[in-house]
Amino acid sequence: MTATNKQPRRHKIEKLLPWHATGTLSRRDADRVEQALAGDRELVRHYELVRQELAETTRLNETLGAPSARAMEKLFAAIDAEEARAPRRRPRPISRTRFLNTARDSAREKHSFSK
C-alpha cells in the first residue's frame, strides 16, 4: 500500500482510538485497530496520548464527587415546575372517515404488492 493510500485508512483508525481505549469497539473494529497499531509507531504514540487523556479525564471527574442531595432536589423541582407550566396537548382524535380512508389505502397497497 502506498503512503497516499495509507493516509485515509490511518485517519479512520485514529478516529477509533478513543473507543478502543474505552473498550467499546466491536470485535471487528478492535481487531482493525490492533493490526494498525502493530505496524505504526506514530499511531501507537497517538494511542498512548488518547489513553493518558482518558485516564486524566476519569481522574478529574472522580475528584468532582457526586452532586449533593440538595442539587438533585432543585433539579427535580425545576422539572416539575416546567411540566406544570407546559400546556397539556391532547392527542387529536382520529375521525372515522380518516381512519377508514387510511385502512382502505393500506389494503390497496397490500393488494398492489401481491400482484
Please describe the topology of this protein:
Blueprint (H helix, E strand, L loop, with lengths): L2 H20 L4 H12 L2 H24 L4 H17 L10 H19 L1
The H/E string reads HHHHH
Overall outline: flat
Number of strands: 0
Any low-confidence stretches, pLDDT <50, length ≥5? none
End-to-end distance: 51 Å
Largest sheet: none
- On the 0 to 100 scale, the average pLDDT is 83
Structural class: mainly alpha
Strand residue percentage: under 5%
Total helical segments: 5
How many separate domains make up the residues? 1
Indicate the radius of gyration in whole angstroms: 27 Å
Estimate percent helicity: over 70%
Task: List key phrases describing it.
115 residues; mainly alpha
Provide structural commentary.
The protein contains five helices and no strands. By secondary structure, the protein is mostly helical. It has one domain (3-83). It is flat, with a radius of gyration of 27 Å. It starts with a helix and ends with a helix. The mean pLDDT is 83.
